[in-house]
Every structure is written in C-alpha cells, then in structure tokens.
Amino acid sequence: MNGGRSRGDRPESPSGRASRRTPGEERQFVDGRRAGTWTLGAIGCCCLTGRSYRRWRRPLRLRVGPAGIGMREVTREESFLSWQDIAAVTVGRPPTTGDIRPWLVVWPLPGSRPHDDPSYLVDGHEAFALVRLDRLPGGAEAVVPVVREYAGERYAETA
Which helix (H) or strand (E) holds 35? Predict the structure, then answer.
C-alpha cells in the first residue's frame, strides 16, 4: 500500500489533500472569529487614541475680546464674528430646543455673512449656538461677565 501507512494516518488540509506533518511538530488552532474581534478592537483603540490626541492638541476654545467673538471646536477651524456684524449675544436656552443648559448664542445682523451655516432660524433671524457654557472652564460664572463687558448693549440674558 503506502509504505505501511494508510490514508487515515495523515491529517488532511482544508483543501482535502493530505498534509505532511512531522512527528512532534507544534500545531496551532486559532478561532478566526476571535482574531477578527481583536483586530476590530485594536482599530477602535487607535481611532480613540487619535481623537484624544486631537483634543489635547486643539482644545475647545472661546475667544471674546474687543474685536469680537471667536469659537473653535476641536476638529474645526475657528469661526470669528466681529462686533460690528453682531446684533445680539444671548446666554440661555438655545432657541427651538428642549435643552435647559445655558448656551452662548450669537445673532448676526441681517446681511452679514458669517462663515458657518446658522444653527437656528427664528422668526426670520439667523442664530449661531456657539457653545454650551458648562463645557468651558469656569462655566457660565466665568464667561458671562466677560461677554457682558465686551458685548455692551448687544448682550441680553434669556430665560
């Protein structure tokens, strides 16, 4: 026959052909489903690490000064509105939402063209919800006095 060995002595490969194995050779059995799960987990960790790095390098920033208001989200460029383009600045609930946390909302003058699309359109007036104040260091207690100082008569606190 086969030199003393029958077909049952040799293990078959997945393709159906007999594979050659030497005695004492190490064999590994890997569940492919678990390897895929680990791979997806590793990719997810890399994405989260990259996001954390971006947040560390480019943190959320609100800039209020004599020239106007600037806001930069983590992954976006800064949007800046000069005081001459702003009709009002409000602190309170954003229009047309159920959120009860205070937001800084800027209402530009008609005809001025800010960089972003408006967050809200209320009675024909555009509004930009810049930031929820509890996301900033010091919260509303630190931001409101500075905005009130620079905005002057443009500042209005809402309910």
Answer: helix 32-57
